[in-house]
Amino acid sequence: MKRTETLAALRERPDIAVLIIGGGINGISVFRELALQGVDVLLAEKGDYCSGASAALSRMVHGGLRYLENGEFKLVKESLRERDRLLRNAPHYVAPLPTTVPIFDTFSGIANGAVRFLGLTRRPSRRGALVIKAGLTLYDVFTASRRLMPTHRFRGRKETLKTWPAINPATRSSATYYDAWVSRPERLGLEMLNDAMAASRAARALNYARIGSDENGLTLNDTVSGETLPLRPRLVINATGGWIDLTNKAIGALAPRMMGGTKGSHLIVDNQELHDALDANMVYYENEDGRICILFPYLGKVLIGSTEIRVDDPDTVRCEDDELQYILQSLAFVFPSIKIAKHEIVFRFSGVRPLPASKDSFTGRIPRDHFCEFIEPAGNLPATLCMIGGKWTTFRSFGALAADMALERSGLVRTLGTEDLAIGGGRDFPSDPADWCARLAAEHRLTMPRAQNLLERYGTSAAGIAAAISAVPDPMLPGTEYSTGEIRLIIEREHVESLADIFLRRTTIAIAGDLTCELVDAVLSILAICKGWSAAQADTERTAFLSLLEHQHGVPLPNLPGENNKRSAICA
């Protein structure tokens, strides 16, 4: 259903069964769950889908090794189950990731870990080989009944330094185990959204739609057109993560403080020496202050993170310079000989972990689990179900939990589960991707690399995209492996309203450090034609995007019009 059709339907009938506020990964997950049960459900997101914390994760799909010492065994077991489901249900975006932990001593952390487990201390400490061995053994035990990846292994100092010559020479040993990573988390969320709407015409969604309230009840403000509509849901689900308290206040829901989020910032670095030094592994290591950090190869670059800082206003978060320096310092600790130049930092991003409110002075001890709480009806406002906490890996089980509570509240029963339901282009994913790509290339007269790119970006949905773009001449856009027709299809089919939607979420162009002024202008030209924008509107959009790019992501591109703007390099 197109945006205009959705708004027209709401204008005609504002009564809906369930309103979900928040189009991040958890909001989309509960939306999919309810849509598959045939529920009349509307999802409203104030920005773009997956543009908040769901665009700022570490790109890890993991059990949470460090949560074991907090005693969160149930969460780790659940996370590992959901990780393995994603490996099966979204193989186009989620893949195994060998993960190596450098170890600097043998016994450190045993006593501290024990008293932390008992709640007698909050302070982090360095983990030695025995503590790490215990954690990885539990990891293997939790996945023994469905072994999808190898069990862990230890290496001595000599073998560790031979495998990773650039690693800190003080390393005494290392442990390697397997978790997973997600290449395009925003696209996975979008595919779930589209799957849900394809499954049921009673499921509708709007991005750039703010929910508020007036004397008559709830309202929806379409920020694209400026129109405001009344809404009369029988149940509200608040899935806004770090914004839950702000959302409750905006809609008039009377509730105590629920959230206490922390900010996590990451860098994308284009340094070939570092990329090669990782040997295709994620290195999961402790900084000198005991904080867990990560770095791993990501889309030809290296992702490094992260920080953990309490925040009060999630709308203001970005990776600040002191965080950048902290991350680089942590890198210098584990790979001391590798130096990162300023121009090699091609992208930075930051998001808010949606943690429950806590007075704990050490953020690492705040529980990472998820739960839901009802706020009972008041005045013109129906009951509100708040989704509190959670981590990206467990979005499916969290969405199922919220959906089941909503169904029970509404007197309905579940008819379909999602445990084994493939997502988007993960359906019918080939066991031999090379053969599949060869047939796709032959059928649509594509080069083999082009077919492989399409499979990586869209999974098996690439077949329909290849058919559409090969029907007419389809020139490639300047300095990228995306084509004109491909971008046009994204705009037409994927709820695009801005340049940021395209470059930051529908594609990996920005995060991979591949943006140029020439490319921005080429895509803006396509977008302006599709949207019917005037030259002035296109100019405003361009200025807004470049400002966002520099302020939020540390990517300065010159804001110059016309021919003078055609530079192929990012200007630092």
From TrEMBL:
Pfam families the record matches: DAO (PF01266), DAO_C (PF16901)
Protein name: Glycerol-3-phosphate dehydrogenase/oxidase
Cofactor(s) of this protein: FAD
Entry-linked InterPro entries: DAO_C, DAO_C_sf, FAD-dep_OxRdtase, FAD/NAD-bd_sf, G3P_DH_FAD-dep
GO biological process, any: glycerol-3-phosphate catabolic process
Gene3D superfamilies to which the protein is assigned, alphabetical: Alpha-glycerophosphate oxidase, cap domain, D-Amino Acid Oxidase, subunit A, domain 2, FAD/NAD(P)-binding domain
Domain FAD dependent oxidoreductase residue range list: 18-394
Transmembrane helix among keywords: no
Top-level taxon: Bacteria
Family classification: Belongs to the FAD-dependent glycerol-3-phosphate dehydrogenase family.
Keywords: FAD, Flavoprotein, Oxidoreductase
GO MF annotation, one: glycerol-3-phosphate dehydrogenase (quinone) activity
Domain Alpha-glycerophosphate oxidase C-terminal: 418-537
Keyword Flavoprotein: yes
